[in-house]
Amino acid sequence: MESANDWMDWFIQVNNPTIGEMWNDNPTYLVANILFITMACLSLLFGLRRGIGSRYVYLWIAAVLHGVVTEMVSYNLPDINNFWHSQTFMMFAGRRFPLYIVIFYPATVVHAYVAASRLRLPWWAEPFAVGLFDVLIDFPYDILGIKMVWWTWHDTDPNIYDRTYWVPWTSYIFHMAFHSSLAFLINGTRRVITGNSDKDKSYGFFKEMLCVLITSGLSMGLAVLTQFIPIYHGLKDGFGIHSEIIVLIVIGLYVSIVWYADRMPKEESRSQIESKGTGWCNETGIAILLHYITFMVLVYVAKPNNVISNGLHEPLGLKHQTMEQYSAAGVTYTKQRYFDPSSYDEGYIDFHCDPAGTPNVTSNPNLIGKNWYTICGTPFDNHYEYIVIIWSFCVLGLYAYYVALSRSSTQADVDRPVGYKKLRGLKDGDGKPSFGKVKGKKLKNKKE
Fold this sequence. Notes:
The chain is mainly alpha-helical. It has helices spanning 4-11, 19-25, 27-48, 55-76, 99-102, 104-117, 126-147, 169-194, 205-239, 243-262, 283-301, 383-406, 412-415; strands spanning 12-14, 83-85, 90-92, 97-98, 151-153, 163-164, 167-168, 308-312, 322-326, 332-336, 349-350, 372-377, 437-438, 441-442. Helices cover 51% and strands 10% of the residues. The strands form six sheets. A three-stranded antiparallel β-sheet has the order 1-3-4. Strands 8-12-11 form a three-stranded antiparallel β-sheet, with no helix packed on it. Helix 4 (55-76) crosses helix 9 and helix 7 (126-147) runs antiparallel to helix 10.
């Protein structure tokens, strides 16, 4: 039986590496950790500023638990286990689960949910908007993160074989499918269990927590059953279609649903004001600005060839040792059991920074199965191309969030600027606070 110390060693590791060591080995990774922890705190503050019982607080909890379920299943299911995070100053679950990833989900999906809610879409369309806003946050993270060795991918897993800039196309489907499912479930369970799917007002701890537990427990399965199996696996496994084509189809499907719903607006779906940007002056607006500005700076100053990642990676071994892998659609594939340093296709890493050189598994069979070793980043093939692609996605993301937050309908639970504990003011016909000008008349908001 394992001792309490053994269990604690598995559960959490702190200061190995230290913050100073992270700064020396991979400073961009330290910045990314701080950024997403900050974004997660901002998303929690967004809810807490509306009261500890706000539904945004429960959404935050649901996003955390959804992330824990998703990550732990991914680490422990052999048919999914295909990525390894680089080490940070706080790691969980046998050093597989960084602190910033624990709260990465509320750091992204809560802000995506806030932006989508401003569009006032029908219930069947809003989750797809959440998926689109979420993947807009993910694009620069995925592209720069893998190049800077914030994590590594399995070398031969067929589900992540199709890539661009070393990012598996399936990663984008993951963000859209999993987080649209989370939004669908949190809204749906609230409607069924409490009788109301308002974004802000809570209907009691026990009912809200029941919604949270159902959502976090079923969101991964719902995404797999309704999107991954019929769309991704159906097209890839059934017809051999490249994952890039499938991602473009999925994005087109999401955009079409959102656009269709947006072209049939309800009365409250369009702004009744001359916008003054009030919707941008909240925690979500601040988080989104921080996110995109940070990535625009990081890609410019980044030096991936100086990156050192010492820690838990794909186990070493010989390439001829293979294993079967079963897809969710029931198709059986074959992939390498181990990572062979003498023959691999992961162009974002090598071993130039390790004084011992490239591990030779053939002459040192004792290395087979070893998963703690040092890998190094590689130079940009074309740094300007990375700058252009990251900046393009950042500008697109800023534009999309600006339109949602500042050029869409007024919404009391989202329009509260930072600095206001509670907004009270003139009411429009729907009982929502009004800002700025309405039909040419200047209105003043009453402060507490």
